[in-house]
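Handover notes (outgoing to incoming on-call)

Open items:
1. OLC1v1011663C1: sequence verified, structure written out, both below. Nothing else pending on this one.
2. Nothing else urgent.
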Amino acid sequence: MEVDVPTAANSMEVDAAAPAKPNFRPLTAHEMSSGEVQFRKISVPPHRYTPLKKAWMDIYTPVYDQMKIDIRMNLKGRKVELKTRRDTPEVSNLQRCADFVHAFMLGFDVCDAVALLRLDELYIESFEIKDVKTLRGEHLSRAIGRLSGKGGKTKFAIENSTKTRIVIADTKIHILGSFANIKIARDSLCSLILGSPAGKVYSKLRAVSARLAERF
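OLC1v1011663C1 structure tokens:
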């Protein structure tokens, strides 16, 4: 009984006969949404109206030129409106731009908030002091003072150790960073709210920074 053993010549003939793989171009956001325009609206708080006017071009340029998303300010409704274009490369660009504008409204600087457009896995977490501990009057004022420190020293130390950005707006706290780093920063802020001295929080942050440095 004879068995045909495939030779190099036979395999070359098979490869030549196989059809070529199709090469499809990536779909644009306009095509993926069946030609429908998608919108996002972000409300502008009264206290962020003036900063928005000053930083408008810094916000407009990356959104319109780089992310290919139309952006305008609705003066009557006091909202920033975003919508996709025909040449928008990805559907996710619209949500990224909405997160970027929302971060600015929360109080983050444009240079910090723009990281939401450039990097994946960045988030914003918000909570209030009363979510950690119910404080009133002078106790609340002292807690806010502990979070910032003299001249913002404590806040900057937490930001630099955890590679995050923190905004303390009255009793609300907003943290921008990766999931793991937000958790470390939140734990440090909660310890300060509960009354831990800044020195104890600093020592914990030094240990965390050393672990992060070893990991990376």
